[in-house]
Amino acid sequence: MDTQRDQRDAPEAAVAAGPRVPESGQVAPGGDRPPAPPPPDSAWRVLLRHMRQSWRPLLLGGVLGLLASVIGLVLPLVVRRLVDDLGADRPVAGVLLLMGALVVLSAAAGPLGEYVLRRAGESIVLTARRRLISHLMRLRISAFDSSEPGDLMSRVTSDTTLIRQVAADSLIGGITGGVALVATATMMGVLDPVLLVVTLGVLAVAGTVLRLIMPQVQRASQEVQQSVGLMGAALERVLGALRTVKASGAEQREGAAVHRAAEESWRSSVRAAKWLALAGNTGELAIQLAFFTVLAVGGARVTSGAIDVGTLIAFLMYVYFLIGPLQLLIRAFGQYQVGAAAITRLQEAERLPAEPENPPAPLPAPETAPASLEFRDVHFRYAPDLPLVHRGVTFSVPARGMTAFVGPSGAGKTTLFSLIERFYEPTSGSILLNGRDVGAWDLPELRAMIGYVEQDAPVLSGSLRENLLLGAPDASDDEMRRVLRTTRLDDLVERLPNGLDSLLGSRGTKLSGGERQRVAIARALLRRPRLLLLDEATSQLDAVNEAALRKTVTEVARTTTVLVVAHRLSTVTQADRIVVVDAGTILAIGTHAELIEAEPLYAELATTQFLPANHR
Ligand SMILES: Nc1ncnc2c1ncn2[C@@H]1O[C@H](COP(=O)(O)OP(=O)(O)OP(=O)(O)O)[C@@H](O)[C@H]1O
């Protein structure tokens, strides 16, 4: 057993309603095992990391917000001066002018500060989205296989949006509100320390109530985001197979799952709204209570001569000014709970195993020699708790020529191709491309050598041109025309309303199955692969197109190493060698004539599956 490979066989992530993070690190290309991902950061830390890149606008927005609050604080003092001046019959023009200037300044600083903060919040959302999108693009196939694409999408679209609230409103709102609260309390203390103690006593009771409410907000918010993810996953499931859903008469049943998730999201949102409203109301109530308490105690103090009426009026104004910062703080805490739930979900997605960030390698030059391939005692299982798919697979394929893989369904043929592409790593054993372990290749360089046509020949939404250029963005129009001719797609291009620029529909639904397969083959050929993997790539072609493509593939096999998973007689018999796979082992390797004599399973497949009885 190859210990290096053993180490590489790391448990991969799985997803229930969303992705689960693996227990330990997964494998890095080149065979190095990266350190296990660090434990998830607290929401605050993540938030601060996001905010570091936008600290200037956040600071400016915070300062402007503070300025507006400070002006609000100064105003009562100006009012007291106005009352005093009016009482003493002094001129008030200067005070009135100052009041007007402060009001205008406050009106300008407030909205400007808010705009700057919101803009910074949007930049933070953009960064979080870019980070997550880049990560998802590099996601290992094993992690993707265990995820719900709809749920991953909701993390990019919905969860990232919530970071803005936390960054722009929660943290800055919290700091601004906190500073304004302390400043207001200081002013109140200067006016009358006794009344300040009375006010703080009332507010402390409200604080205790709020500490009971906030965890409820976070719980409800987590449920909201989870159900939004579930809704995305359920919707993707239906829309991704709408024809099958309709043909199965399952619209209502499948729709019900989406409705259930939507209703669950609604229920949780309403629950969160209820707790948030209660929190806001607690703040309001506390201020009302503080106002009346201060009025009663303050009235007694005016009567006793401890303070004058102007001081009491100014103090009562400050009590009302507390509403702003207090509401800001309550909202900040509420939004922090919502954002913390979203940050947890983003971190989950960011911790899914991904391939390293490498720029794509250039395609090999046309004169590059075709690749040879060797499997040495390869064992593989998809997950530690699943049975072995390959049990000691050993074979070698020289450069050039066509090798066909045949065997019963589920024998492990497609999985061989996944291992060559390094979508998965073998549990033990090694795979050598041109004599070099695939694990030691630079991943983009390895994939640049290979043209791969998947079993269901996916076509992406977009135009035919975009589909062809997917793997060879620099291909010239001439090269494109050439592969279109070899795959007999030139007729199709002429028929399509906008030629190469015609849109093919989501997953290529506007094409026939055979056309889709030919587009997928053309795309792979355009990459000038040194190793071409065709997984039942011609299964949906009619006899004429199949014969034409057979000729093309034979032609390609003169300069390239071609591996095909085949169920068709014609493909199998033209192969230079046939590898018979059964239950994850290689039963035999030989030509059609050799195998039909020597290998009973092949003879059986030949008679029952892909060969007419008289073909020998
Ligand atoms: N992503 C996956 N996770 C877990 N098990 C998988 C996965 N993909 C395939 N398998 C299992 O691995 C085994 C081999 O599958 P594979 O697709 O390689 O077979 P195959 O020989 O290509 O079959 P067919 O001829 O039907 O396409 C099957 O038992 C299959 O259920």
UniProtKB/TrEMBL annotation:
Keyword field: ATP-binding, Cell inner membrane, Cell membrane, Membrane, Nucleotide-binding, Transmembrane, Transmembrane helix, Transport
Amino acid composition bias (Pro residues), ranges on this chain: 32-41
CDD domains: ABC_6TM_LmrA_like (cd18551)
Domain ABC transporter: 373-608
Record region (Disordered): 1-41
Localisation per UniProt entry: Cell inner membrane
Composition bias type Basic and acidic residues, residue spans: 1-11
Stored Pfam families: ABC_membrane (PF00664), ABC_tran (PF00005)
Chief subcellular location: membrane
Highest taxon, organism lineage: Bacteria
Spans through the membrane: 58-79, 91-109, 171-188, 194-213, 275-297, 309-330
Membrane topology annotation: Multi-pass membrane protein
Domain ABC transmembrane type-1: 59-337
A cellular-component GO term for this protein: plasma membrane
GO molecular function: ABC-type oligopeptide transporter activity; ATP binding; ATP hydrolysis activity
Family designation: Belongs to the ABC transporter superfamily. Siderophore-Fe(3+) uptake transporter (SIUT) (TC 3.A.1.21) family.
PANTHER family attached to this UniProt entry: ATP-BINDING CASSETTE SUB-FAMILY B MEMBER 10, MITOCHONDRIAL, ATP-DEPENDENT PERMEASE MDL1, MITOCHONDRIAL
Protein name per UniProt: ATP-binding cassette subfamily C protein
Source species: Streptosporangium becharense
